Batch of 2 targets.
Target 1
Amino acid sequence: MRKPLVAALFALAIAGAGAAPAVAAPRSAPTSAGTGTAAQPASVARTATASGTATIQAVNFAGTVSLSNCSGSVIRFPSSADTDPALVLSNGHCLETGFPSPGEVIVDQSSSRSFGLLNSSGSRVATLRASKVAYSTMTDTDITIYQLTKTYAQIKSSYGISALTLADTHPVAGTAISVVSGYWKEIYNCSVDGFVYRLKEGDWTWKDSVRYTSACHTIGGTSGSPVVDQATGKVVAVNNTGNEDGETCTVNNPCEVDESGNVTVRQGINYAEETYQIPACFGAGNKLNLSASGCVLPKP
C-alpha cells in the first residue's frame, strides 16, 4: 500500500489491527514535478495544430489534493450538478480511522478531515474540509469517498479549480495515463499494461485491477492519486499499491491471481483500482445509493 510508514503505523494503532497491511516507507521528496508540465489551468489542456488535430498537453495538478498521509482528488460524476456537495476520492487504506477489514464497508461516517487543494502548478490554494465519509472499503476495491462542506460551484468561484470527472466506462489497455500525486506533487506518466483478475495483498483481495507499465514507479505517499486518461482528462482509476520485494501475496507485495488460480509476481510493478463502477452508485445531489440499478460496489 502506497502511503508513508509513520502514518500507516499510526493508523494501525487506531485500528488495533493484527494482520493489517503495513505500507511503503516514505522516500525523499522528488526534486521536480515529474515528467508532466504543470502550467495549464485544467487537468488536461489541449492545443490545436495547423491541421486542426488536438494535441495533448501534460496532465497537471489542478483538482488534486494532499492528505496528511496520502494523495487524492476532488471528483465529480458525469451527472453531478455544480450545486452538489463536492467529493474527494482517495484509497480505503487512507481512511483516517484505520484500514477497513476484509468484508467491511463504511458509509456515512462522520469526518472533519482536511485536504490541501492544489492548483495546476501544484501550489496549495485552499484547505477543504470533509463533512463525512460517504463510502469506504478495501473489499473488491480500495476506495474512500469523502463528502465536503463546499459545493463544486463554491470551490470554482473561490479558487478557480474544477473537479476531475470520473469516467463511467471501463479503461482500455494501452491507454496513456498519468498518476498525479498531490502528496509529493509528482506526476508519473505511463500506460495501462493490462488488467488483473484478482490482485491479492495480505488479507485483502481486489477485482479487475489496473496494472501499469514499468514507467509508473509510484512510491509511498502516492496512495489515492487519481489515474488520469491523458486523452480525455477523466479519472479511470485510483493508485493503490505495488510489489516492492518480489514476495508473493504479502503486505506491500501484491500478487496477481488469474481465473484458474495461477499466481504471478511482478516485482517493481504497480497497480490501481478502477473507478468506472462508482458513478452508478451515486444519484441526484451526489447521494450514495448502493441499491441503485447498475451499482456493484460492496454493500455493508
Target 2
Amino acid sequence: MCRSCATTAAPTETPATTEGPNGGLSRRGLLAGLGLGVLAVNLSAGASTAAATTAPSLAADAAAAAAAKNGAWADPALGRFPAGGHYGAPRGGASHAGQDVSNSTGTAVYAAAAGTVVRRSWGGGLPGRTGNALVISHGNGQYTYYGHLNAYRVGLNARVSAGQRIADMGATGNVTGPHLHFETHSGRLGATVNPVAFLAARGVDLSGGWSRIDPGASGATVVVIQHLMNRRGYGLVVDGRYGSVSVEAVKRFQRSKGLVADGQVGPATWPVLVYTLRQGASGSHVRALQTALNKRSARLAVDGGFGSVTTSAVRAYQSVNRLVVDGEAGPVTWRALTG
C-alpha cells in the first residue's frame, strides 16, 4: 500500500463532478467525463422550459451512459484491493489520490485506454507521489497515472493502445509492498476522480470482474464477441462494430440462455459465451482468444489454430498476471483478458 501518493489537499473531483449526491454518477459529470461538451439544456431557462426538456434530457442521459461502455477502456492490472488503499483514504493531512491494486513485483501493467505517454519519471511530476510513474493523456482532459512501477515498457511520448502492456508492477518509492497506484484525472491533470467509479462507468471492473460492452461499442473486444458468436453459428461480419445486427444476434443468444436480452455483453453473458480452450482446438472461438491476447500485446497471427505458439502466449499472459499457468484458456483467463 502507498505510504504517500496523496493529493496536497482533499482529492479534487472534476469541476463538473462525476458523483451525484447519493454517490452515483451525475448527468453533468458523466457528460463532462466523456468529453461531450456543453449540455443541450439551457439551465437558466424557466420552469416550463425545464419541464418540456425533461424527457429528452433523460433520453440523452441514457444514451451517454450506454456510450461510455464502448470497449475503449481496459483493466490496468490484476490483483487485490489492500485495506486502506482506496481513493480518499487518509494520508496524514491529505487524502489518497488513487486506488491501489496489490500483486507481486513484475505483474503486468496495461494502458487503461489509448493515448500518449506524457510523463515518465519519479513521481510522474505530480506533488505527493513517489516511485517510478507513467502518466497517459487520453484526450478531452482525461489522464491516467500508474505509480510505484518496477520497470517501464514504453517510452516518453509513445502512443499506446487500450490494454497494451506499458510497465511492470513494483514497490519503488514510499510503499509497504508491491502494488500499482492507479489514478484517473478528468477535466485536467491534477483533478483526480475515484478510479473505481470512473472505470465502472466505462464498463471496466478495476477489481478484476467481467467487462460490460454496450451497443455502439467498437474495437478489439467487439471482434472477440463477434468471433465467439460466430462459433455459435450466428454468421456475423467480423468488423469490430457492435451495431444493430450484432446486437440483435446477442439478444437472441441471451434469450436462448434464459438471460435478460438487453444486448449488453457483461457479467451474465460473458461466462456462457466463452469456451474453455486448450492446445489442439481450432475455429472462430480460437480467433476470439487470439484477438483478446493481442489486445494485451501478444502479437499472434489470428489464424484460429490453437497451436504451440498460442499456448505459449496463454502461458505467458497467465504468468505475468499471476494466474494459474496451465496454458488453458478457461473462465478465469477469459475474464482477465476481456476486462
